[in-house]
Amino acid sequence: MKKLLTFLIISTYCIAISLTSSVYAEEPTFVSITNASSDDQILENGDGVALDINISQVRDSDTTVTLDFNDSIASPSLDFKLRYKTNYSDISIALDNTADVIIPAGKAKITVFLYSILDCEDENNESIAIKIATVSNNLEISEDILSPIIIEDNNYDANYYYVAMNGDDSNDGTCLNPVKTLETALYRFRNNDKTTLIIRDGTYNEINNKHVLKNGSEETPIIIRAEYPGNVFLVGNRSELERDGSDDKGLVIQEASHVSIQNIHFKNFGTGIEINNASNIDIDNCTFENNGHSGLSIVNSSNIKVTNSAFIGLIPNENSVDSNGLLCNDLCAIQDYGVAIWGSDQVSVSDSYFYGRHHQALSFKEGDTNGLAERNVFVGALYTAIFLGQNYENNAPRSTNLIARYNIVLDEDNFPVKSPIRVDNVENATVEYNYFEGFDYSNNLSAIFILKRVEGLINVNHNILSYGVNEGNVGAFEIDNDNGCPNIDTTINISQNTIYKVHHSLTTYNNECAERANMSNNIVYKLLDDPDGLSNDNPGFVEDPIKLNLSFDTRPVDFDSLYEQLTQPFIID
Question: What is the mean predicted confidence (pLDDT) over 181-187?
Answer without folding.
Answer: 89
